[in-house]
């Protein structure tokens, strides 16, 4: 009789290695599946380890390009910051990983997907909600959470099942990362009054050690997609990597935030998003030049909803499809180049130009070239202020003759 | 026969000095009125000059405290940035200046208020809309705009009317400033691709010249009002001045923005708001700690409306009163202290604490002190993902049996 | 040794009578508590029955006035319709009932509150969330739900414990009602294609049987509170009752709605809200006359959030307090009288007048009395259309000379 | 030498006939252009009259189909009501008429477009803004407004220029109508306390005279488009006409509203939109069945923005394109049939069904078929109420030990 198959989101670490053993012991054939969204993992080694600790198959997927083009890009164009503070990071990769797991499950005819999230984080909600949205027929297992395995129990279980136990001291931090950023929680960070120590950061240089010379970048966009740096074209995922590297050297993109998780608690995390910070700033600056006022003033409501929808794991929903349709339409004229100065943690947009620029120097100038009809202003002001005028007149009348009412 | 009286918003500069003469020649008794909202003007000298160039009375008003407490404070608590970019600056002082002009007009029984705004800026709309909203019975004059006086004509008119003409070369910039920031347009800035030159800035040190040692500040808030720095109490307007000074030295608060004016054109301006930037960042950080998720996630809509309402000169409206009522209620638990590091243009919130902190370490921790009920997550996820699950089931059924529909 | 005490939300029906027995058997002293929010219950009989089936105390509370003034009123002023369809009904009474239960628990030093909600409705979420928000130290019991007692098991348990079992056939419907309306689900209504049968309605006459003569009502409001009908003053809860009665006779306020519950499923319910429908329509009509355009155009966002916040059981939150502060401010000028015609299911606002009317006949008229400055329109249009004009000019230039870009 | 050409929006009435003469006298070759958007005009007669009173060419365009498919449809799908009260009517036809005028101008190489709107209404703003947005190079004339011609002056001018003057008494009302509805202002309606007289209505029967037997209609939608009535397919513009007729007989769709014009004044108008009312009600009812909760709860913000954007004459803007993209995406699953009862002014949705129905009877039922996991509710409630719980615990602690803070 064939065994049921389970596809496990596999990282190569202790938690998910123990889960391979546990799932195998529970009667499953385990397919380990490692998806690279920009953590710079050693996929070969992870693939080998998956087999070594008991998986019947070990799959590795380089999803960086898809992650950049389908997941980071809408977040960029929507200026998606969670709670106005950080550019989403983990929430962005979860739907892609869920999709890849479901694809592998369908390919292997697995009945089940397993993951190793804790019971108090956002990720369990995200993985499970997004898997349900893609394939409600699949079951979900999370042995570490559901068996209440502590670190000690895991090590015990690993030893019993021939799984290598790391000999280095465990990091105090819990880290997740991808192309768009790096998230870090736990340890000393759990005290919101404590300064985050320098060893909590990895992608960004401390301001005290950044270069004393700025880097200037000209970032070019076509329809809201960053396509070139200083005139050189890059595929999006490579462009993000380049900007991450340069901006990280200048100490750009550190964020320290107490956030509301979707499971109802506050947590304190630090983020490093050097590339995202630069691209988000430049993209907004170009939109300021190319987008009409009506669209520019309404889009923030869409942006907030997109950020919340991503954070809340509603990527695969009709709502998100509709939001993306709005977003795509809004990007058609976001063409041009922004010149940014990267220096001492700052992203400074010094200049911007576009064939779609709606800035009209002849209208804006105070020089003789002025083509603005200043006479029109009087009429405009008269009608613009009419509601307030009438309102105050009524108030004045009431104040004068209250007895007449 | 007595003449009609006009109250003129008087700055001491050429434009409004010429306006005194013009209004006098037009048959008015002119009351010059200069209101200090934090430009550090020489009020004594301006008062004297007003009389000297022909005003029958010259009034000066130090409105810094009122400006801080009644105008900057709601902008701070609402995290009011125009177009997500800069903290409003000029738009904030206009309603207060309009109110003071109306008060003086009522005191002197004037029939008219005069100002010297150009015909293509926001300020003419703001002054006139706000004056109409306060006293619709008052007439408004703007001779420079309505007589189409060019710079050359003004100088001619000044000479004819015994008004001193400045001998220094005219600044290429058009500047407005107050406690909350400094706005600068015109000159080379009219080219949005050009880097703003260093001489366009005044309140902030260039990053290249900022100190190599950070300044740390502990900013304490009571009900959303910043009340103390490093434990020392300040009245709000003085606190803003102190922070302006310290943050300016660290090069904080430069903003370069292409914005949509309310008269329908785009303009490019640069801003310097060192103190505002620090206070806004710290206040938001404290709110993250003390505000419940539901309020934190809705407040941004109110914030955006407040920013737009201020920018659009709707300060004295029932809408703004209602928005302020929401805002005041939202600040009741924003008590506590934020520790910020000011360094190389960056405002870094390193720690925050509050008696109203909603961060519960026993819920958030991953240590043994954990009091979070991880079992509850399974039920939560089940119901949370139910709508997506049902939706996908329906889609799958349709895909399987399209002919049955 | 003293027993723990539990306060049970008691209706007098089979479910909650069985719960008295169950809680008693589980070792509690039970305080039965029946709160009247406008169902026209026989409180004396319910109080007696509570004691009779085993409660150590039986408390009845007439909360109609408080319900009208503190709960219905904000819903009225906020034009709160869930999903744009019905005026909330059950969601409105839950926070008041929770508050009364907590007050009784504190008075009796009870440790626990019990209710009899099913496991798939909104009410369990509402009662428990609102009790937690008022008194997180109280435990909550729901024996019917948690013991999975079916109707048959309940009858069995009743017989064993000397509880009278109703001999009439059980209604197919599940009904909840209060001053603001009546909600009905279950039975044939579970088929959304089926027409709701006439016996599902109770408060409203079928259109086919309504009078052939309309009723006219002049409803007067002070600061957004309905205070008089045809000039006669009423306390709010009585005014609602009167309007319910009159409007019900005219068949007003039937609503048939498929809604999204907060636990993630859709359900179909019918509602009868005759009085609410009339008051909501009249109040909106008066606001149209007395509210400035800026407030009128923003308030709907607040209204939607208020409706959702009430539906989602977030009454006792800082968010709701802030929303109510906005609302209260918005009502200051909602004074005046609306003349409505009630006829054949229709609420027709035929006329409205107010000392705060912002309708200015001299501005609006097309007769010779016209005081509107038609010249101003040209200037207004010029600036109003400027962004579109510039945008199209840029597009035209691009279309003409694509190679030049 | 050739004359400049002007395209005049021509209705056949006195105003625009006088304008033909005036424009001709001003040196233009006039092309009269009459566009039928559902007023049931006698196009042949209007075309002849245009030539007769002096136009060099007279063009008539039946735009009913385009109006229904491109203009009414998004308004339907967006549930677009202005100020929550009426389905837009005039605002919907203006962009189409503007577009047709521009097309004719381009075809005839005209330099100018002329219209006959008054100087205090919305229509002048709409026509001119929308013409500018389509063809900023065209000039615009409005002789009646700009020459301040009163009714008497018009009649004088008509007589002098051989234009037939109507001998019937002028209607007291000012009426605009199209497929989607009929708008009526002026006369006695200018008093907002006065009941609109019966002669103000034309498309709807007075409730007192409607049939005593209801009409039942099954309205079928495909992707949000109404395609069939009682199973019979219709092109959209015919379907609207049929529903207008049936619903009008039942007295459906009368609306009496005091509204905020975009030029800053309030006006009182009455509307008749029988077909729109029925289709809007049925479409919303079907969405309630087929749309997921997340989309259903966000779409109202888009709907409000669409209504405002249309009202405010911003049809031809990038914002409106983006809003339409959202809307189109939201309609993909709005398939199915709604059974409505039309009776005595009421539109009653009695039943609805869809292959895309998200109502799952097995989840919703309270019978034995129940497949809802009631256990999950406990976990859901626990996390759902966690923020309120923590908030209250903090408040309680502060209340107990205020001195410790």
Automatic annotation (TrEMBL), chains A, B, C, D:
Q: Which reaction does it catalyse?
A: L-citrulline + L-aspartate + ATP = 2-(N(omega)-L-arginino)succinate + AMP + diphosphate + H(+)
Give the residues the record marks as binding ATP.
9-17, 116
Binding-site residues for L-citrulline, renumbered to this chain = 86, 122, 126, 174, 259, 271
Report which superkingdom the organism of origin falls in: Bacteria
Q: Where is the Arginosuccinate synthase-like N-terminal domain?
A: 5-164
Question: What top-level class of enzyme does the UniProt entry assign?
Answer: ligase
Question: Pathway, per Swiss-Prot/TrEMBL?
Answer: Amino-acid biosynthesis; L-arginine biosynthesis; L-arginine from L-ornithine and carbamoyl phosphate: step 2/3
Q: Which Gene3D superfamilies match?
A: Argininosuccinate synthetase, chain A, domain 2, HUPs, Single helix bin
Arginosuccinate synthase C-terminal domain sequence ranges = 173-389
Residues binding L-aspartate: 118, 122-123
Entry EC number(s): 6.3.4.5
- One Pfam family per UniProt: Arginosuc_synth
- What are the UniProt keywords, alphabetically? Amino-acid biosynthesis, Arginine biosynthesis, ATP-binding, Cytoplasm, Ligase, Nucleotide-binding
Location(s) in or outside the cell: Cytoplasm
- Main localization is cytoplasm
Subunit relationships: Homotetramer.
Entry's family note = Belongs to the argininosuccinate synthase family. Type 1 subfamily.
Name of this protein: Argininosuccinate synthase
List the top taxonomic levels of the source.
Bacteria, Bacillati, Bacillota, Bacilli, Lactobacillales
Q: Which gene encodes it?
A: argG
